[in-house]
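Mods, move this if it's the wrong board.
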Amino acid sequence: MTRSVRDAALMMSAMAIPDLRDPFCVQEEPRDWRAGIEDGVAGLRVAVVRRLGYAPPIDAEGEAAVLAAARVLSEHGAIVEDADPELPDTRHIFGRVWGVALARLVNTMAPEKRALLDKGLEEVAEREGGMSAIDFLGAEAMRTEAAHAMARFHLKYDLVLCPTTPTAAFDADAPTIKPTEALWRDWAPWTFAFNLTRQPAITVPFGLDEEGMPRGVQLAAAQLRDDLCFRAARVLERAVAVPVARPEAQGNGASCANHHHH
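Not the wrong board. Structure tokens:
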């Protein structure tokens, strides 16, 4: 969403403030999330996670990127080890919780807007929209269980390090084939668990693949510890200067290279 980690922290500072229209939002004073962002990771405990209640797919390059990121964090003083948070199978929870919310959105949309929807979204809404209230509450209870498992895990580990996606970036406008399966297989198998558990997570570009497409790694922290995500992401960003994809498409030739210090 931004070209640098510091800009992500700035955006968060502008957006993360309490709002009367949301009774569930965090009621805390606005803060500048850039404060402490250069504090590094010395002494932080980092878990390299390969299972989220199931084994999400990852290609060899993605595995290599995670190991390289683990090495960078460890060279900067973090204590890095492999660990499994022992979650329930998060696929079963997410499809239901997200599908029902999506069905409600689709059903309340003006017909002319509905025509513009990605067919995949309509398909998921159609598939999950008829769920009984009891089944939906069952999925919500499992979501709480997953959040509890992660909260316990974070008593031991400050951060989780894992892939962002199973492959490098693919074309933004590529059509979605079999949307429900694509969620677990292509787009979100590494990211949706943290949506479910309401944890802060950040993804940082960490090199390009052979086709010049960006490859990311993901960091997640316990609820309300966005500051740790920013600090660790900043360490990774400084270690690996990723060129802007297709600089000619950036207009005035602005690049984020000036944010990287070696």
